[in-house]
Structure formats: structure tokens, C-alpha cells
Amino acid sequence: MIPAGINPLRERWSPATIALALTLLAFAVRAAHLGAQSLWRDEVDVIRFAAEPLDRLLRNMTLAQHNGPLYYVLMRGWLAVAGESEYGLRYVSLCASVVSVALVWRVARAWLGRRAALLACLLVAVSAYLVWYAQDAKMYALVTALTLAALWCWQRALSTGAVRWYAGFVVTASLGLYIHLLSALMLPVYAVMVAIHWPRRRGRVRAAGVSLTLLTLPYLPLAVWQLPLIWNTHSTGHSFAPLDDMFEMLLGLNARGMVNVAAWPALLSFLFALLLGLFGPRPGWGGSAWRGRLFLATWAFLPIFLLYLVSLRVPLFEPRYLIFTTPPLLMLAAAGIFGLTALSRVVGGVLLAAIVAFNWLGIGVQAAFPLKSDFRTAAAFVADRYRDGEPIMFQVPYVRYVFDYYFRCPHPTLDGPWTNDGKDEAQVAQMMAAAAAGHETLWLVSSESWLWDERGLTRAWLERHGDLVDSASFARVDVFRYRLGDSDLLPTQ
Q: Is the pLDDT of residue 132 over 60?
């Protein structure tokens, strides 16, 4: 007999067990299509930079404009063990993203209560946006996990006063600074967290101040070159984004991932849950509702606003640079959904189902269609038709490293001419004729060519002086093969 008032399911499935199950779900979702997308240039850069001599990698930690120098040191050791396959290269991100689900459980339950925290774990586990970067070899999944770990340690330190938690906070937050430079935007969030705890933990303010001071010390070598760069305006390769555009992009990505499928229904569903979390009923909150809302809102929005202020002088905005603001957005949405279920289980369930469904759709599309530059298929196309000695010209030249990751045949390499500095057709013709001299055929691999040759002068020259015998277009990559004429290609004087 089961005693009255005992729910067998609840007794069998404790909140911690459910959190573990959601963590395993996150692993399955992320591992299933880890190699679905071709590597893109930033991912191949991980291999290139990690292969540099260790002393150079360590020096990069204090040199200007080296983002995430510690990440390449860590990846150097990992790649030596796991190899350079797509799966091995991305596995670190997968593991970091899975650990983030467990850390969300630890962080969220203190603010939301256990049941709403489990909803947050579910949203993180099936977030198409987080799944995308769990399947990317760059540092974005790892910096998210380190941010969560730092906040968990900070939370425990302010609650218990234990030295080990203060030490854990300083270590994890410091690692975050060297994994991605914009982790520095979390420093004010850590300070706000002290203020939120202050009325109940006044005796620990001194220890918190010491910890924050210790945290700034590892940041000083970075600040030495970062602050002058921010003060002196210069080209960064990023366009300026108004604040409303920043919010629209970030909310859209968090609502449905990288694909623009069902964009508005997904955004409205997510925004509704988010607003409920910020301003709606309180049943989803554990402890003091206003403190939880203030903390999560600060974590979610203050780094965005700070990056906007920086971008007024030096444009730096890329949505992925702020990926560590995704967990609080999902926690707020979870609190909103949980609060809504207290008023109507049906309506709350429908909202949860809609948000999960839109993310599941995003995950499916991200796995089924090539969204990154598809150099894997482009290289296979060339390999099937390539003859020894044929030169391959790259436009933009930097993409040769991604192409060569997949194309293992030795080949002469030609850099496509840089024309965006105002070169005229005659100058480009001179450069192209010199590059093509002595070759009967020439391959052109073009990706993001507007960054290098916005007017298309390279292609125009090849169209005039050669016959197109093969071509193919793939996601963000175009391939052309030209048979060149036998006559002198140099322009007449």
C-alpha cells in the first residue's frame, strides 16, 4: 500500500534525477548531429592557432587583439589527444554545453525554486541557439559554462561565506576572461549580485570585495591593451548595430536558433514568456521574487547595454559574443511559463509546448541544411575533377585553410587580388595575367568575395580570358574551373 499523500512518480523522480535526465537529453540532442555542418573558417582557425608553439600561445595572452588566447592553449592539448577530426574538434564545445544544463540547475533553483529551475533546464537542453554553438569548435559554449560556474560559486560564496567558493569564483571567472575577452562585461553583474545579497549578508561584503579585487588582477594584462583600443576609434570589421537591433537579433536567435523559420511566432512566444518572467505572477519564484528578477534581468541585459556603449566608439557587436546572456533569458522565460501554469495549466502547457516545438524545429533545420560555408562539399566537387598541377585561386585568400582541411591533394595556390582598395580593371588585369601565366586551367574558389573583390573584377577577367568548363554553388561557397586561352594574357600597352 502507498501511504496517502505520496505521489509515486514524485518519489521516484526527484528534482535532481530529472535534472540529470535533462542533462542526458542535452547530450543526445547535441551529439546526434555534431558533424552535420562543414567546418567554417573560424573553426579551422582553432586548429591553426592551437598548432603554434606553446611559448607563442602564452605570449598571445598579453598581446593586443588576441581573443580567447587561453582557449587555444587548452585546445592544443585536447587536439593532441583527440585528433583534428570534425567530431574531435567540436567535442569540447559539446561537453561544455551539456555541463551548462547541470549548472543552470544549480544556479536557477536558488532564484526560481526547483520546479521552475527544471523548466529552465529543459529550455536550455533544447535551445536551438545553444545547440548550434555546442556543435561549433569555437569557445562560445565553454565561455557560457564558465560564466554559469562562476555565478554558481559566487552565489554559494555569498550564501555560505566558505573560502573554497570564493576561490572557485575567482578561478572560473578569471578563466572566462581569457577564454573570451567580452567576459569582462560580466564584472558589473558580479558586483550587482553582491548588492542584491547585501541586506542579508552584510558581514560578507569585505570578503566579496577582496574576491572582486583578486578577479581584476588577472584582467589587468588584457585591460592594458583593450582600453586604448576602445578609446581610439578604428576599424574592427563589424558594422554598428543600434540597441534595438541588438535586442531583436538576440531575442530572435534565442527563440528559434540560427534559422529564419517561423520567426515571428517563435519570437512572440518566447517574448511573451520572457515578459511574464519579468513582470508576471510570482509562483515561479523561490525566495524573494524581486531579487531574483533583478539579478536575472541584470545578467541578461546589462552586458548587452555595456557592449552597445562600447560600440558607440568601436563597433564590436556579434550576437555570439553575448551568448553568456542566453541562460538568464531562458531562466526568465521558464519562470514566466511556470507562473502562467499556476493560473492555467492548459495555457502554460501550450506556451511551453510552442517554445519547445519552435526550438526543435530549429534544431532539425540546422542539422538538415548546410548553413555554414560548405567547404566539405566544395572540396569533394573539386577533388572529383582535379588534375595534377592545376592552380587554385582563393577569393578571399584566407579561406584556403578551410578548403585545404578537406582537400588533401597538393596544389599550386593563388591569392585572389585585393580590389576593394580601389584598383582599376587594368591593374587587376595585370595581376591576373601574371598569376595565370603558364597555366592552361585555373580553379577559382570564392567565399564571401565581397570582402575582397566587391566589384567582381576577378571573375570578370576570367570570363573574358577563359572558358568556363565546370562550376557549382554550395552554401556560401562557389567553385569555377576555367580553361585559359593560349595567347599572351598580359594586356597590351
A: yes
